[in-house]
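As described in the Methods, two query proteins were run sequentially through the folding procedure within a single session, without resetting any intermediate state between them. The first query and its resulting structure tokens are shown here.
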Amino acid sequence: MAIKVDYVARETFSNLKRNALMTAAAVLTVAVSLALVGSALLVRQAVSRATTQWKGGVELSIFMNPDATADEISTIDRQVHDMPEVKKVTYVDHTAAYDEFVRIFRDSPEFKESIQTPDQLPPSFRVVPQKAELVDSVGQRFVNGAGVRQVVYARDTIKTILKVTRFVTTFLWIVALVALMAASLLILNTIQLAIFARRREVGVMKLVGATNWFIRVPFMMEGLIQGLIGAAAAVGLMIGLRPFVQGQLKHIQLLQQFFVTSSQVLGTGLILLVLGSVIGAAGSAVAVTRFLDV
């Protein structure tokens, strides 16, 4: 028996309307669980972006004021190079800092537009001590130096960032997996109720020669739509909350470099849409199977 598109569409929307309350519950659960999954994925990407500047063995950075004078910069430069505890020094001027900024936020024009000229970004010295245990003693020499804005220790920063984000990511994944299981069970239960209400009709269809797929497809489409709507709601939630969350992070020193670009949010959204569709269709397929043995 051939499957017709109009039949599938009619049966799918009829089932959704008939079980509106259960459908709404399933969609809401999918939305919440996938929003948590998306948040976990974006946190991982934000951590990767935040630690970009520390790659290459840099142990600390001495950030100068954006308007530091040439004498102040040369003084710090001379002092750093004269220290026997220092193994390597790299000076990052305004232009290099701007190039790094553009590279980090190349997919996020809204951030790139916030910096109009290289002079707005502070120059810095990237310092690698002879031994890791010398980081503190080297950094303290420049904390109150003329023209110095901030001394940031990569080791402590990365360690703290990874510790916090590892906990947050793990928590989000656990909650998301539990919620996804609940969403799958809700979709499965919704489909089972729809089939149970039509069990005699399904039996008659089997007796007159309807194939399992002819019966199964409308119910799978119902689950797929539920998962897709829930995923779309999760994506909308992430997009809507992104400016607010990143605005709040700017007030926290440790998390100021936690940014995700528009393309990263879009990519994560596409993953959630696929995941929602798969969960919905898979849950429906499982629910239908037990009723096909007539």
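Immediately afterward, the second query was submitted; its sequence and tokens are:
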Amino acid sequence: MAFTTLVDVRTAAGLLGRADVAFVDCRFQLHEPGWGLAAYRSSHIPGAAYADLDRDLSGTKTGENGRHPLPDPDALRGTLGRLGIAGGMQVIVYDQDSSMYASRLWWLLRWMGHRDVAVLDGGFAAWGAAQGPTRSGEETIVMRAFVGAPDHTMVASLAEVTALVTGQAGAGPGSVRLVDARAPERFRGDVEPLDKAAGHIPGALNHFFKDNLDEAGRFRPADALHARFATRLGTTPPDRVIAYCGSGVTACHNLLALEHAGLPGGRLYPGSWSEWASQPQPPIATGD
């Protein structure tokens, strides 16, 4: 048993109660941070732990490093152990529906060297629609010793992105391509509800993370995702993709979709637009 991208509700339900499987609930709302924990306490998949985006899946903010910087690796090891995760375990993560928050924990676990992690396709909404069992209240989670170290090759820094934008990183066939996961109106700079400036990083292309989903909120089939990314990326190989979004969360959704489509190797710019827009006089592009 090893699920490394997505798992469907029926398969996940068959893994309930196994000592070598950890479920983690990642439900969250940016504009109401306490909603996710309240929703978890009201109803969750039996045995699931709860991980909060701000408290558990992000690090300390400085005002210039983005809204959801990466956690300190030592702190993250402690968090993952508290969530009941250790080496050799299958982890299944979920959120309310679109997987935008669950994909962040999916990426963090892979960053820390744990590859057997999959997102529940369709999230808690799909679980409920299938009449999967639920429990309320808090779970007693067995704490474990998580051992892992960050893979720095999976990350692109502000300095690297700056060099790319200013032309210091080279260009031509096979060059790095920035892919922005935000909604098209934010990419264009028509609106900006969260960050200090509107627009996008110059040279980036837009692939809205919700385009990875079908009308039912499930991920599109792997071949359909492959075709969509091939159209967007052109000649850019997947391992030359740097994914970003507003704060390094929904960019992980695009990286998950790429992996599921058989296009692995993309990297995350964790600070994303919220870090970029906080720098002194950052280069900014608007429009399509």
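The chain is about 30% helix and 10% strand. We note this only descriptively and draw no conclusion about the first query from it.
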